[in-house]
Amino acid sequence: AQTVTQSQPEMSVQEAETVTLSCTYDTSESDYYLFWYKQPPSRQMILVIRQEAYKQQNATENRFSVNFQKAAKSFSLKISDSQLGDAAMYFCAYRRTNTGNQFYFGTGTSLTVIP
Amino acid sequence: ETGVTQSPTHLIKTRGQQVTLRCSSQSGHNTVSWYQQALGQGPQFIFQYYREEENGRGNFPPRFSGLQFPNYSSELNVNALELDDSALYLCASSGGVFSGNTIYFGEGSWLTVV
User: Fold this and answer.
1) A101–B31: do the CB atoms touch at under 8 Å?
2) Which of A58, A55, A50, A56 is closest to A34 using CA atoms?
3) Interface touch A107/B107, C-beta < 8 Å
4) A112, B4, B33, B41: which is deepest, by most CB within 10 A?
5) Residue B23 contacts A, CB cutoff 8 Å
6) What does the H/E/C string look like for A28-86?
7) Measuring CA to CA, which residue among A8, A11, A9 is closest to residue A113?
8) Which residues, other chains included, contact A76 with Cβ-Cβ below 8 Å and sequence gap of 6+?
9) Contacts of B42 in chain A (CB under 8 A)
10) Which of A45, A106, A107 sits opposite B90 (nearest CB)?
């Protein structure tokens, strides 16, 4: 069974600084996808970034980047130049290939941005 | 704006009752999944429907059931409600099961069982 572990229940960062959120996962599959989702108080899941396991290059989206270590089954999210609007719950998620919307989510990290 | 609408937003039910939650997706979204998110937890996969048939299920008992309709709407039904069923229920829809499709989440329905 696939499991996703986020070992940091809460994190805080000063505005304009950089923060890294950790995620590890367990799977026997070789082809899969990894995601970071942001969940603000509105509760709607917002896609932050996604990584295909077959790609060695780490994904980046503006201020967001990942460090994907396939052998170590590690998938961390780095947020640069943190902004107040980045404050939210962040969930790491795993999805097997071609399974539609079937995600396995971690327990989340609550990020606070300090002005 | 994701085009995924869930109703009702909030509701309160009594233990033992039945509840139906609804999700309306964009036109062409033939794949819908439902998730249960307890307070302080990550979403847990309940089941998925593809072209009106269930094609994946998580570790939830049979009293959790669903339907998907030709008009891209879907329902989650929960019978014999228990206190532990209190949670946020999210639906996620997309245009198919292939990995390249963009997935859209609704804002959820808050269910409280008393």
Assistant:
1) yes
2) A50
3) no
4) B33
5) no
6) CCCCEEEEEEEECCCCCCEEEEEEECCCCCCCEECCEEEEEECCCCEEEEEECCCCHHH
7) A11
8) A20, A21, A22, A23, A66, A67
9) 4, 6, 91, 105-108
10) A45
Q: How far is CA B33 from CA A61, A87, B112, in A?
A: 26, 27, 21
Is the CB of A30 inside 8 Å of chain B's CB atoms?
no
- Strongest mean pLDDT among B27-31, B52-56, B97-101: B52-56
DSSP B51: T
Q: Which two tokens stand for residue B19?
A: 């509840």
pLDDT value, residue B77 = 98
Place of tokens 């079937």: A102
- Those residues with Cβ within 8 angstroms of residue A24's Cβ, 6 or more apart along the chain or in another chain: A4, A5, A7, A72, A73, A74, A75
State phi, psi for A38 to the nearest 5 degrees. Answer: -110, 135
Average the pLDDT over B63-72 and give the result: 93
